[in-house]
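Why does residue order matter? Because the sequence determines the fold. Keep that principle in mind as you read this record.
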Amino acid sequence: MADDATRRAVSQIPLLRTHAGPRDRALWPQRLKEEYQALIQFVEQNKEADNDWFRLESNADGTRWTGTCWFIHELLRYEFRLEFDMPVTYPDTAPEVAVPELDGKTAKMYRGGKICLTDHFAPLWARNAPRFGLAHLMALGLGPWLAVEVPDLISKGLVVHKECQREAAE
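Structure:
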């Protein structure tokens, strides 16, 4: 179960009202507007708490999202690209977030670098759809996944900080 800090942070993310997916031409722009508002609020909230850890942007129609996320471990910043497409059944189905650089490095990942969220996050999303949005996906899906997986991958030597790679190459 989530700790108190996570519950508090997530409770400040607005729940979305519009039940529309990418195929719903009439209501999708309204849903997309709500998504952006929730994401902006979540990022601002993270910055205020000195916990800024991702950037996202979408294509013009809001169906393809790309960005970066980062994780600080032992005062070193590990940065990763992330990407996902909106499923046609969104918001009833959560997007599958991919971190391509980590593809094949952990068992908690599917082909193509898609992170495994089925056991913990998927039931939570299902209970809260369509009120959950992308900010919730980041806060309750990708964030906890990074917090568990990245330190483990670093300890196994599967993820190396960029500066350490440069020093080894020289």
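Strands lie at 54-58, 64-73, 76-85, 109-110, 114-115.
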